[in-house]
Amino acid sequence: MTASLSSSVYPFDGARETLLARPIPRVLSIAGSDPSGGAGIQADLKSIAALGGYGMAAITALTAQNTVGVSAVHVPPAPFLRQQLDAISADITLDAVKIGMLGDAAVIDQVRSWLQEVRPAVVVLDPVMVATSGDRLLRESAEQALRSLLPLAHLITPNLPELAMLLGEPEAEDWAAALDQGKRLAAEYGNTVLVKGGHLPGPECPDALVNTTGLLSRDVIEVSGPRIVTPNSHGTGCSLSSALATVQARTGDWEASLREVKPWLLGALTASEYLRVGQGNGPVHHFHHLRQAASPGAFAAKLWNAAAPELESIYGLEFIQQLQSGELPERDFNYYLAQDAIYLNGYSRVLARAGALAPTEEEQLFWARASQQCLEVESELHRNWLSTRPVPTGTGPVTKSYVDHLLATSASGSYAVVLAAILPCYWLYAEVGQQLHGAYVEAGAPADHSYAEWLKTYADPDFAAATRKAINLTDAAAIAASDAEKVAMMEAFTQSCRYETAFFDAPRLFV
Ligand SMILES: Nc1ncnc2c1ncn2[C@@H]1O[C@H](COP(=O)(O)OP(=O)(O)O)[C@@H](O)[C@H]1O
Ligand SMILES: Cc1ncc(COP(=O)(O)OP(=O)(O)O)c(N)n1
């Protein structure tokens, strides 16, 4: 009893797998290749992956095309396509199949006989005939053969010229006429038709699922959407049909699938401007929803925005202005140095903790070295700066709070959160140091400046390089972090930024 239970609860277990929803549907695209990557199998594979599926591709035809047009089409021998299809279906259970460009009647015949044998659970047919550029992707002589494929599809996704051609009628000129044609095509072949509004003018761009056999909750399910003003719509039909096949394999519900896919496609059209691919009708951005998370530097930029007001406050502090002009009372400077030495000791422990949590040996080494260098700077402070000055002993309240915050974060936070807490000490210090050193050099590096020796320490290129590395490591950790972790990172970072300001202001308050 125990043994059979434990084997049957595993979701991908043998015979039970067809009864359970597929979390990662296995989706085959039978389509032509677009080497520019915006349409055809390239768009299909991206769309399938973007919607969470595992994509496969059997290539029907090779096109030479870009965003401007199609310059050549090569259709390999149709029996070889059959070999591709047989190789896949002999080994892999297909949760959905999407069919796109077929090229000619011989290819269509092979696909039809394979479909009749394999009977995939979900078949979406995009009856590709002519590209938006006006170039033919299906021989005119193959149009009748294409009609013979329609009864084998569960969903047909023609654009308006294709819908008209399949019915042998003129193209619909408005949405009502398009829906009417969709109903007649669905009734003729007993399946569901997706009527698409892409080829009509106006501010709205609706799509509608049409089925007159009672398969849907209503004969026509319209999903509205705005028309995105963009020159980039290359491959929208391919992307939509393969995305629908993928989501349908997961949900088993056409309406739910269209409601999930339509906003994704709108996002892909909207974000297409970031791609800058080609000079004509460019591709859509299939992975727009991953853009923020995966884009290197994006989280660091957010952190920087959060730090900006704090940096402003630091530059406004009397301590910083007097340090820059050389008018800072010596007792304030001494207090600052003494607190810095205490702080560095605590900070070194937190850096060591980052090393302990680091996911790679390289990062471990970076933080371990940083921890050691921190102790070296601390002893340098004692040896060269503090030994000859009357300095107050004891930990000041700001130093105590800042170190407590860092230690608490390092005790309970993840690697990413610890890095976010550590970063302001690098980043703000490096920025302030650069500003102070720059102003000192601009003033002609006066040798009689009371803090000339100290200001020169700010020009250390190794510290600047270490700061850049710390920023990059924090940014990379954010890319891998969960949403909750990112929130915790931002909190830890902004808290440390506040302490950086308070640290520079502490001599004014506590001396
Ligand atoms: N400018 C646009 N704004 C919003 N959606 C669009 C736009 N152009 C096309 N679509 C959508 O892209 C999909 C493909 O539509 P369509 O252009 O009609 O087909 P095809 O790409 O096969 O010619 C549909 O979901 C349609 O609503
Ligand atoms: C190889 C290949 N297949 C299909 C198309 C047509 O793409 P589609 O998404 O229908 O629309 P447009 O890109 O023509 O707007 C293609 N161009 N190439």
Automatic annotation (TrEMBL):
* Entry-linked CDD domains: HMPP_kinase (cd01169), TenA_C-like (cd19365)
Q: MF terms per GO, please?
A: ATP binding; hydroxymethylpyrimidine kinase activity; phosphomethylpyrimidine kinase activity
The yes or no answer to whether the keyword RNA-binding is present is no
Q: Name one GO biological process term.
A: thiamine diphosphate biosynthetic process
Q: Which reaction(s) does its UniProt entry say it catalyses?
A: 4-amino-2-methyl-5-(phosphooxymethyl)pyrimidine + ATP = 4-amino-2-methyl-5-(diphosphooxymethyl)pyrimidine + ADP; 4-amino-5-hydroxymethyl-2-methylpyrimidine + ATP = 4-amino-2-methyl-5-(phosphooxymethyl)pyrimidine + ADP + H(+)
Matching InterPro entries: Haem_Oase-like_multi-hlx, HMP/HMP-P_kinase_dom, PM/HMP-P_kinase-1, Ribokinase-like, Thiaminase-2/PQQC
Which N-terminal stretch is annotated as signal sequence? Answer: none
The pathway entry for this protein reads as: Cofactor biosynthesis; thiamine diphosphate biosynthesis; 4-amino-2-methyl-5-diphosphomethylpyrimidine from 5-amino-1-(5-phospho-D-ribosyl)imidazole: step 3/3
- Per the database record, which ranges form the Pyridoxamine kinase/Phosphomethylpyrimidine kinase domain? 34-285
Name this polypeptide is given: Uncharacterized protein
Q: Top-down, what is the taxonomic lineage of the species of origin?
A: Bacteria, Bacillati, Actinomycetota, Actinomycetes, Micrococcales
